[in-house]
From TrEMBL:
GO terms for cellular component: cytoplasm. Residues 24-177 form the N-acetyltransferase domain. This is GNAT family N-acetyltransferase. It comes from Paenibacillus apii. PANTHER family: GNAT FAMILY, PUTATIVE (AFU_ORTHOLOGUE AFUA_3G00765)-RELATED-RELATED (PTHR43792), RIBOSOMAL-PROTEIN-ALANINE ACETYLTRANSFERASE (PTHR43792:SF9). GO terms for molecular function: protein-N-terminal-alanine acetyltransferase activity.
Length: 182
């Protein structure tokens, strides 16, 4: 991809992040409730948000992944992000990741956004398999994935070491042949 794709849903515009978004990214990544199941510590300064945006944009430039900023159609303020990483082109698969400001949780927003990203992944990135790794206690994320049609494939015991403990993850996947546009 040479140009960053902009995606639209009924309520959202998914666009490339830029350094002007660092304030919003910092505000919600500084909340422990947002980073509780995330593989990074809560932010303590805005430079961390700036660096995260740089990393996400570099992955896109190197054709290694894509991360969209989620904005409401009515305003350009970023309320979350979603995208693909761990892209293994030779295996036609990638991992999806996402987060949202807590005030927008449990309103169906992430379901709408992820469906659009998945559609793009299957139709434009040539993916055959999209995976998600979720901590067992992250019930909200598990519900979102199941609503969209992801299937739980199993639990990876002590899959990684994080915050001074071994953490299990549940692996979910959606295959292109099983995907139904909703």
């Amino acid at each position: 991809m040479s140009q960053f794709p902009i995606l639209e849903t009924d309520r959202f515009v998914l666009r490339q992040l830029n350094q002007d978004d660092s304030r919003e990214i910092f505000q919600y990544f500084s909340l422990d409730e947002v980073t509780k199941f995330y593989d990074l510590e809560s932010f303590t300064n805005i430079e961390q948000a700036e660096e995260l945006i740089r990393r996400w944009n570099q992955r896109f430039e190197k054709n290694q992944g894509i991360r969209w900023g989620i904005t409401l159609r009515s305003e350009s303020r970023v309320i979350g992000t979603c995208g693909f990483h761990g892209w293994m082109k030779n295996h036609y698969k990638a991992e999806i990741g996402y987060e949202l400001i807590p005030e927008y949780w449990r309103q169906g927003y992430m379901t709408e956004v992820i469906q659009k990203a998945i559609e793009f992944g299957f139709n434009n990135l040539g993916l055959n398999r999209i995976e998600a790794f979720v901590e067992p206690e992250n019930v909200g994320s598990r519900r979102v994935l199941e609503k969209i049609g992801f299937r739980e494939e199993g639990t990876l015991k002590e899959h990684f070491y994080w915050r001074n403990r071994f953490v299990d993850t549940v692996i979910y996947a959606l295959l292109k042949k099983d995907y139904k546009v909703r």
